[in-house]
């Protein structure tokens, strides 16, 4: 078990969102994809700094 309980949640969230993007690609626009990518970056940095 990792020392940071949020690490598992973060990984699960990223995997879930990635799968969701793959299945919803046809209905997503480029701006939506960039928005999701930006969200990934922000969350990753936040968890890295706070963890």
Strand-residue proportion: under 5%
Assembly classification? single chain
> Number of domains in the coordinates?
1
> Main β-sheet, in a few words?
none
Tally the helices: what do you get?
2
Helix content: over 70%
Low-pLDDT residue intervals, each spanning 5 or more residues: none
**Rg, Cα atoms, Å:** 13 Å
End-to-end Cα distance, whole Å, is 15 Å
The coarse overall form would be elongated
The ordered H/E elements are HH
Topology:
Blueprint: H1 5-24, H2 30-50
Helix pairs in contact: 1-2
Description:
The structure is a single chain. The protein has 51 residues and is mainly α. It has one domain. Helices cover 80% and strands 0% of the residues. It has 2 helices and no strands. Helix 1 (5-24) runs antiparallel to helix 2. The longest helix is centred in the last third of the chain and has 21 residues, at 30-50.
Question: Which features does this protein show?
Answer:
mainly alpha; 2 helices; 80% helix
Quick summary of this structure?
The protein is mainly α and 51 residues long. The protein is 80% helix and 0% strand. The protein starts with a helix and ends with a helix.
